[in-house]
Amino acid sequence: MMFRKRLGIGLLAALLAVASTWCVAGGSDFVVIVNKANRSSLDKATVAKIYSGELVAWPDGTRVAAVDLPENDPTRVNFSRDVLGKTVSSVKALWAQLVFSGRALPPKQAATDEDVKKFVISNRGGIGYIRPSSVDDTVRADN
Known about the structure:
This protein is α/β, with parallel strands linked by helices.
C-alpha cells in the first residue's frame, strides 16, 4: 500500500513537471522564443500578458517586441488557444480595442518561422513562437 502511494506521488510530480514545461514551451505545437540577450524567465502567464497587451516591458526595462505568425497559420491557432485561451479572431478583436483606445499596438506579423526568428534576433526585447523543428541556437527557447 505504501509503495502504491509513493508511486502515485512520484507520477503526480512527474506530470506536474511536464505540465510546467508545456506551459512555457507549448508542447509539440510551438515553442516560445526570445532574443538570446534576454535573461527573463518566461511562464505561460507572462507570455499571455505580453500577447494580450498587458505587459509592454521586460523586468530590465527593455521594451517588449512581440511578433505573431499569420492568422491562418496552425502554429498561431494553437498558440492563441493554448496560451491566451482564445481563438485568433478573438485575439484580433482584443487588439482592435486596444489600438482604438490608444493603449497598445499589436505584435508585428511575420510570414514564416524564419521571419519570426529574424525579428527576435534583431530586437533585444524580441519574443515570438515557432514550430519546435525551427528552433536553433540563434534564439533562446525558454523551457
